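Exam prep: given the inputs below (a chain plus C2E), describe the expected output before reading on.
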Amino acid sequence: MVKAVTLDQREFVYRLSLSLARSKIDELDGSIHGLIAELGDRLGADRAYLIMFEEASQTISITHEACRKGAPPQQEAIQNVPMARFPWLMDQLQILSILVIPEVEELPSDAEEEKLEFRRESIRSLVLVGLKLEGQVSGILGFDFLDQSCVLDRETEEFLLQVGEVLGASVHRQILASRNVRFENSLYRYSDQFPGVIFQFRMYPDGQTTFPFISNRVEDMFGLAADVLSKDARPLLDLIEDTDKASFFKKVDESRRRMTPFETDFRARKCDGARAWIEARSVPARLADESMTWHGYFFDVTDRKQSESEIEKLAFYDPLTGLPNRRLLRDRLAQALTGSTRDHDHGALVFIDLDHFKNINDSAGHLTGDELLIQVGERLRQTVRAWDTVARLGGDEFVLILKGFPTDTANAAARVEKVCEKVRDALNEPYDLNGIEYAGTPSIGVTLFYDHTTTLEELLSQADMAMFRAKEDGRNCIRFYDSMMQKKVSERLAMESDLRSAIRKDQLAVHYQVLVDEKGNPVGAEALLRWQCPGRGMVSPAEFIPLAEETGLIESIGYWVLEKVLSRIASWKNRGDALSELQVSVNVSARQFHLPSFCSTVMALLRKTGASPRNLKVEITESALAYDLELVEETLRTLRSMGIRISLDDFGTGYSSLGYLKRLSLDELKIDQGFVRDILDDPNDAAIAETILALASALKLSAVAEGVETKGQLERLVSMGCTRFQGYYFSRPLPALEFEKLIEKASGERKRRAW
Ligand code: C2E
Ligand code: MG
Ligand code: MG
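Solution:
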């Protein structure tokens, strides 16, 4: 019987084939089955089937089968059947694309084995179409006829060949997909057992990134779905901590350029918000379109990192309080000593011992004692600055390394003392030790360090000795190793607190010392500050001005002096006598002079008091010039433009530099009293005084000799060409009212003065 498939049938099958080609992979099985059944139906076959060859094992298996009612299925029987059982058939299919066997019984003699096989299955006739995958016959579309003989017309044959091609392509697709699925499945299976995340990461030439494959654990680890990441890798990359991002991408780039494995550890935020350490390892490959892929894994190594840092902690930290131990203290001290040498500043080693710690430990138990130590550690940590070190030596002994104190030892000591007081106050606060209220005190010993030469052991023993002094002196106090330093620190601290209240208590006063010309006429005055302190008597400005400078008090004191002096000048203004002509010098300290608001403050005070700037002279010392010279120049220019005169005090004792003398707008040099004192006896001093006078005249500045006490000194200075004088020989600094009387008297006596 010649089988022919009519045109409409053909169209129908074409459409089926088309739908086959368009089927998604997971629908393909069904479509193939449908197509086969349909074809078998049209051909009137008893069985229609698809056989696939397994190249590796040289076996064949039926993958799809559709049987007519009553025809026994063979799919189960024909699984992994060796190809060798069909030698003739296999040969024929290599040559012919379609094999039509009208009568099995008429097969040639070299098809004896096939004949036996077919006969056993009661097959009378067959149509077999070879399916080519990648140019190789790797499957058969077959039709069995059990009791009729089949012959195809040419058109149907042609048609079946075309169907075979479509089917071949579809099957090929399915095989590839199933291979992928199998691969992916095994990867998934494997990856689900793997305690990390397995991935393929892809980076396109335009910088876009995806994870074409990433195992499901990514969801547990980062709370991100694999299929989201398969389209865009950024949600995961965004979880990398900012601090580690740059190095992560730098490593990616390195791996891309050098084609070396990508290996890094980074920190990321997990889905539960916790931070994790992630180890990433992967191998790069370059694709044809210049994309890059990396295959590898992410692994959560937080535990490992933690135990690494635990180990470090055990070695360098005290397990109870978590503070650095003696070992780390030594390191930190070495760093501090280096830093101190480099920055020319002081550091301090502070030894803290808790008073009567043994009592609480013995009476309330070790756990309570431990709790106290923990809380003490915490308070210490909170009291000092971030760059200081708090360590525990053991027992109830704690050590602090404090850094960054001034070069000047006394000043540094005073500041260290302040920090220690804060520490003591913090430790004096009551403790709640698991319900037990406790009030404890510390004894604190301090030693300062400045250079490299002292060792930790030396410093510790110094601080330890100081701490014992603190215990001896009644506990809960602070003692310095050096007793001189101790004394200075205490005195300064007391004086500072007195000074703070001096302005408030009206203990400060301004005295005036007259300045005269070579004829003895008063031409000016210097305003000199006086401190009448009840407990101390008259305190010399030489003593308290440096302290005021260090503590910053000078700013308010300086303001007070200026205001006082300008008010006084203003009160003299309209008298029309000698006083209204005087130029009054005010000493301005470097710190005050460098305040950005200095000029505007002076201007405001001039306005407020009504004093004339012509009556004001500002005295600065050379130390005020050892600063940003341009700023100094500007300040001086502003002051002079206001009509104020500038005098350089104590000239010759500081950094005297001809350079700035030329550059700065000054009016006057004051020869320091140190050169005047011995001017008659010491040729050097005389020479210096003479040089300063020459210099002043060369620079067209006036010169004042300070500290003139005798007639001899005066005459000598006059002979050297000096025209302005100040000193006890003429008058001591006097309270304002006395000074006024002095001037009135002096100007009344026209010729020879009282002096
Ligand atoms: P200075 O500016 O060099 O003041 C001159 C010092 O010499 C004054 O000391 C004055 O009393 C003293 N003196 C004057 N004539 C003689 C003399 O014939 N023999 C001796 N032996 N000494 C004489 P004083 O008042 O103790 O002031 C000391 C320093 O304190 C001043 O030195 C000045 O630098 C500073 N000072 C005083 N008042 C102020 C102020 O209001 N502000 C600032 N920043 N510093 C001030
Ligand atoms: Mg002065
Ligand atoms: Mg002076």
